[in-house]
Amino acid sequence: MHRAYRYSLSAICLTALCLTVQAGGQANVDTRAFETHAIIAINERQLTLTTTVATIEPARTFRGSSWVRIYFYAFPLNEDDMKGVRVGSVASMDRRWHQLSRNKYNSSRAVVQLTIDDTSNVVGQVDMSVPGHACTVAWQLSDLERFRKDYRFDGKRLRIKNSGSHTCEAQDRQTFRWSIDIDIPVFAVAGPH
Fold first, then answer.
1. Chain-centre distance of CA 114, in angstroms?
2. Does residue 8 belong to any structural domain of this protein?
3. How far, in Å, are 68, 103, 120 from residue 158 at the CA level?
4. Is 112 inside any structural domain?
5. Considering the entire predicted model, what is its pTM?
6. Enclosing domain of residue 171
7. Which of 5, 74, 155, 179 is within CB 3.0–4.6 Å of 108 for a Cys-Cys bond?
């Protein structure tokens, strides 16, 4: 009986290990790890966003750089979304976002794109977009230094705590404002780039 107990305990431990490891050997991530409270606004329109997903891929226009895209949504991840997130895809989330936007102007999605140096992981440019509007909000050294104050990225995990504003001259003087506090895993976009 003692031997059967040991076997059962080993089987339980092995099962638990299998449930926490996915293909590629990465730990399975709980959907609560993607919860946030972010505010991104343009002029008087404010988006309150509760879920965030980050991906990374080589920057097509900047040699030696990558794009880290931080997607914000106003609804939680489900299991179908997580399947895509694990391979760097937000297609499932975007389908849900499009369904929400059919009958009204949508305010449940925003994207922050960081252009980072592949060697140092230092941010060289910050772009933001909300439905219908996009702007480069940091590219000058002084703006980038403010953005980098509480920024950490080790290639797998991203930490940003930042708030600020920027008026886009090229966009009819539209003012972007943001308050972001995230500490999330970053998933590489699968497939050819």
1. 10
2. no
3. 9, 34, 14
4. yes
5. 0.81
6. 29-188
7. 74
